[in-house]
Known about the structure:
The chain is mostly helical. It contains seven helices and no strands. The longest helix is centred in the C-terminal third of the chain and has 46 residues, at 125-170.
Amino acid sequence: xxxxxxxxxxxxxxxxxxxxxxxxxxxxxxxxxxxxxxxxxxxxxxxxxxxxxxxxxxxxxxxxxxxxxxxxxxxxxxxxxxxxxxxxxxxxxxxxxxxxxxxxxxxxxxxxxxxxxxxxxxxxxxxxxxxxxxxxxxxxxxxxxxxxxxxxxxxxxxxxxxxxxxxxxxx
Length: 171
């Protein structure tokens, strides 16, 4: 065996279902890759990870990885199946983008955002200034609501005690 064992691509975890695998990431191509780019990436990946190039102990994992590569290539190389696949992953990608916005880019456990670098722009000085102003306005709003609720509770307690005192003297 050659030194290709140390250079091969990592195999995805065996508990990952095919629905969770992104075929584009598996092949290492962009979402706008042409058929020839997909074919080139598939051949390169298969050269590195073909089961015959692995020791007997690693062969089962390599076979599973090769099956996933074959499935990815078959799906992405046919226009009809690629359109159908793109439609299915579009929902997941949009959901991941939305969740990464809500969690501030921390991402979800076990997920990688393939669009992260391309969709997020580096904030400019004006963006940072606007964010500080928005944060300050939000904090002021929260303080006003909290102070108003606290004041309302204090006023109600004072009224309750005054009414209780008045009613106690009358009766």
